[in-house]
Design goal:
By secondary structure, the chain is of the alpha/beta class. The chain is built from 14 helices and twelve strands. Helix 5 packs across helix 12 and helix 8 packs across helix 10.
């Protein structure tokens, strides 16, 4: 790296020693948590090997660190716990909600992707607007931070299941009118003949940026710096846009805006999004990907506002441990969070063995 390039990345700043990075280098291996039920970001090939956009990111990150890669499968519900337990050093698993999950892991800036939230509707459904879903039951995946917020915002009931495949199965069996999930993943699903009669007619409800995560003790560490610098470079070089194209995703306004922002230079030629003397990215660069993103009638909220932080905190709590407590009968906790009593209960429908085939991966 040239001296100017080093200054751009904030190499003159001092970062705290990283216990995780020291372990990674001593072992010559980094353990990265990825999902395998989230195509095209993470899934399994015919031989049971992980593949997908986030798997590619894990490989690129291992190359950046100069070590071997060990992929560790995680789920939406246990991904942050696996990070806290030390089973992995880095998490790349579609984690959003930066304002609410800082105690469960350090989010590394900049964000590497962002996706709206939408509903995959059954073929016979005619709804075209969110307000028409009021009173309906949607299937969803446990642990999604947006579940509780959208449940309250649009007055829907949710059947939550541990995996995407199980949620899709319930939708096919008619237990819900559609699947509430990441728009990017739903768009990918619609490419396959098995799902072509299904529809996604709604405007995205909001845009959630995704970040890589490291353990809580790694805030401001050398490991956080290495990952952040790599993601910033990938934005500037168009690497993330190329990966999006490789995996058949529609062009993302999120990545387009991020590339423009992270490539912008000052009059003197220095990058606008460069670390300061303390190693921090400018505030405008950290949140630029959120700015002015609107999908349909719902506005993407600015994470710098206290109101948005409060919404995300409630969504994260309800989407994780509190919802699990609610399923054990703790409606008191839901009442304290201002959530209405859960009317729907997970049906005890038998799950067919070949459910993974439904994902058509």
């Amino acid at each position: 790296m040239t001296p100017a390039g080093a200054a751009d990345q904030g190499e003159t700043a001092t970062f705290a020693p990283s216990a995780a990075l020291a372990k990674i280098r001593s072992r010559g291996e980094v353990a990265v948590g990825v999902r395998t039920d989230f195509p095209p970001f993470g899934t399994l090939d015919a031989k049971g090997r992980p593949r997908g956009l986030e798997v590619d990111l894990a490989r690129m990150l291992a190359d950046h660190l100069g070590v071997d890669l060990r992929l560790v499968p995680v789920t939406m519900d246990n991904r942050l716990q696996r990070l806290q337990q030390g089973a992995i050093q880095i998490l790349i698993a579609g984690v959003g909600d930066p304002a609410s999950r800082h105690l469960e892991g350090v989010e590394v800036q900049p964000h590497y992707y962002g996706s709206g939230v939408n509903v995959l509707m059954r073929p016979e459904r005619t709804e075209t607007q969110w307000r028409q879903l009021r009173g309906s039951t949607l299937c969803a995946v446990e642990g999604a931070g947006f579940n509780a917020w959208l449940e309250q915002r649009h007055r829907v009931s949710l059947y939550t299941m541990p995996t995407v495949a199980e949620a899709l199965y319930l939708m096919q069996q008619g237990h819900c009118v559609g699947l509430l999930y990441s728009e990017a993943a739903l768009q990918h699903l619609l490419r396959f003949s098995h799902w072509r009669e299904y529809r996604m007619p709604l405007a995205s409800a909001l845009v959630v940026p995704w970040s890589m995560r490291v353990a809580p003790g790694e805030q401001g560490s050398e490991l956080e710096r290495e990952i952040g610098n790599a993601v910033a470079r990938w934005h500037r070089e168009g690497t993330l846009i190329a990966l999006e194209r490789k995996w058949g995703l529609r062009p993302s306004a999120f990545l387009w805006r991020a590339q423009l922002r992270w490539s912008e230079r000052r009059m003197d030629g220095r990058l606008l999004c460069a670390r300061d003397a303390q190693g921090h990215w400018p505030a405008d660069c950290r949140s630029a990907a959120w700015a002015n993103l609107r999908q349909g009638s719902d506005r993407a909220l600015d994470p710098r506002s206290l109101a948005w932080a409060g919404l995300l905190a409630a969504a994260s709590i309800a989407g994780g441990g509190v919802l699990r407590a609610a399923r054990r009968g703790s409606e008191t906790v839901r009442a304290k969070l201002g959530l209405r009593p859960r009317e729907a209960r997970r049906p005890q429908a038998p799950l067919s063995p070949p459910m993974w085939a439904l994902l058509a991966t």
